[in-house]
Amino acid sequence: MLPDEVRQSLEKQIAAAEHPREQVINVMYLLQKHYGYLSDEAVQVAAELLGLTTLEIEELATFYDFIYREPVGKFVIHVCDGVVCWMFHEGSVFDYLCQKLGVCAGEITKDGLFTVLPTACLGYCDHAPAMLINGVFYGSLTPERIDEILEKLRTEYCELVICR
Amino acid sequence: MAEEVLLAGRRPDRPLTFDEYRQQGGYGALNLALRRKPEELWKIVSDAGLRGRGGAGFPTGKKWSFIGPGFPRYVVPNTDEMEPGTFKDRVLVNVNPHLVLEGIILAGYAISASKGIFFIRPSYEMDAELIEREIQVAREAGFLGKNILGHDFSFDLVVHRSAGRYICGEASAQVNAIMGRRAHPNKVVHMADTGLWGKPTIVNNVETLSCVPPILKNGPEWFRGLARSEKGAGTKLYCLSGRVVCPGCYELPMGTPFGEILEQAGGLPPGRELKAFLPGGASTSFMPKKFYEVPMDFDALEATGNRLGTGAIIVFDQNTCLVGATLNLIEYFARESCGFCTPCREGLPYIRDLLWRIEIGEGKEEFIPLLRQMSNCMSLSYCAFAPGAASPVLGLLNHFEDELREHLSQKKCPFGGPGIDFRDSLIALEEPSRPTV
């Protein structure tokens, strides 16, 4: 069940919009933040709040790559697979992360912390190869630097940004 | 060093503040503009020769002049910027957010809009937060909101956070996305008449909009004079990435030859030699070394059969396999296709499959004409996405057919590819039941 305070804050946000439907992505982001991913229940709630059908929410949720319809780890690692990063993928950042964490694309590590996803060019080509974790960008990656970043995320508190 | 306009006063560590921008004469153009009629702005911007910096190069003044009747009207500053190799809008927003805002307000005045919707991609969340803070600063100073500077013009700006996907950069798809619909392009309606919520709407790239305040302040002749080429106008934010010593965003006169831009970025690292470059992001065509002196502007690149695109230059050296690079680009486009029309949805995976086979040494002679045929068919698609996606493939066929043929004759990639990425993908191809991401 969605706590009342979350529901009320969503209702307030929708009521303040000129057109409720323009809030649909924000609503999905906030529900995703609450549930950890856009669960079936979240789809229902979003539809109800916005006066849309669940199918209308579903067709948006499955369109966007930053909306997760399946459970993800606390940290979602979006690895850039644009052409510039590809050029610098000596040994492949993506494969290194998957091997290091023992997961395939989209899976969650056993400790529930990480999910790795390939992502369209992140716009950090001047710092290739690059990745984005919960809205924070990391560039000029090497295996050593990736190890350091993972260790830091595991051990230090980190504020979650809305777009994960 | 050439005159910088958009990145003038750039700080290495932080964006320019509102006060610093004011000291540079910031928001002065808005003050001047509000004393003129909106139509006069169309003419000044047209006389300045300003063309859209987001990829299509459409004349900005002309775009504004198409604005249809009816109110409210909307301005959509486009910061979707998902063209691979492109990061100029991110740099611009981080260097001088208030220049961007002043440009947006001026566009709002030019088309008598009451609201702007700043469309930004999810990986730029930090920049979205920055813009939101600075919007508040501008609002408190009276540059946004009701009766701006005491004039009969009210305009406000909100940030729309996207949730990804390349196609959202296309104007009509972007408007659909803002309205909470699936972001398919819509070529049936004119944005200028029935755009956002069925009202007159103009979608402009933020680099384009940021050129407007300096044009109004210094005049159209000055702006035209900034360019190196005769028909060009203004400066351009060129993004340099790939095999260069100092990748980054360089503001140079429009029409600066490719070779000079490359030298600004320190050239290629020692031991590496230029093989090819993409002049304006992933949806332009590969250019070989013989185009070293080509002026980087709209007309000069069109004359070579290519496009300036976003001005994002990606440099490839002699050790990079261009078949592999093209395969990567097509993988990108096949995944990002919105799936609405058949040529794009079905054609791009087909091209990807042919390139895959060539890259792993299973290519056949007949694949080469087939690749050309399929790439040419992309012009039959609904929007400009698929022809753009086919551009690098045609560039590969036109200028690097020898490299393609080497893959055929050696029955493998002569550069030692494919990497492990591609082997993984092939397993996915053989087992269609495996879920793909």
TrEMBL record, chain A:
Signal peptide: none
InterPro entries linked to this entry: NuoE-like, NuoE_dom, NuoE_N, Thioredoxin-like_sf
Cofactor: [2Fe-2S] cluster
Pfam families per the UniProt record, alphabetical: 2Fe-2S_thioredx
Cofactor note: Binds 1 [2Fe-2S] cluster.
Residues annotated for [2Fe-2S] cluster binding in this entry: C80, C85, C121, C125
EC number: 1.6.5.11
GO molecular function: 2 iron, 2 sulfur cluster binding; metal ion binding; NADH dehydrogenase activity
Keywords in alphabetical order: 2Fe-2S, Iron, Iron-sulfur, Metal-binding, Oxidoreductase
Domain of life: Bacteria
Protein family membership: Belongs to the complex I 24 kDa subunit family.
PANTHER family from the UniProt entry: NADH DEHYDROGENASE [UBIQUINONE] FLAVOPROTEIN 2, MITOCHONDRIAL (PTHR10371:SF3), NADH DEHYDROGENASE UBIQUINONE FLAVOPROTEIN 2, MITOCHONDRIAL (PTHR10371)
Name of protein: NADH-quinone oxidoreductase subunit NuoE
Organism: Desulfobacca acetoxidans
TrEMBL record, chain B:
Enzyme Commission identifier(s): 1.6.5.11
SMART domains: NADH_4Fe-4S
Domain NADH-ubiquinone oxidoreductase 51kDa subunit iron-sulphur binding: 323-368
Class of enzymatic activity (EC top level): oxidoreductase
PROSITE patterns in UniProt: COMPLEX1_51K_2 (PS00645)
Family of the protein in this entry: Belongs to the complex I 51 kDa subunit family.
Protein's recorded name: NADH-quinone oxidoreductase subunit F
Species whose genome carries this gene: Desulfobacca acetoxidans
The organism's taxonomic lineage, starting at the top: Bacteria, Pseudomonadati, Thermodesulfobacteriota, Desulfobaccia, Desulfobaccales
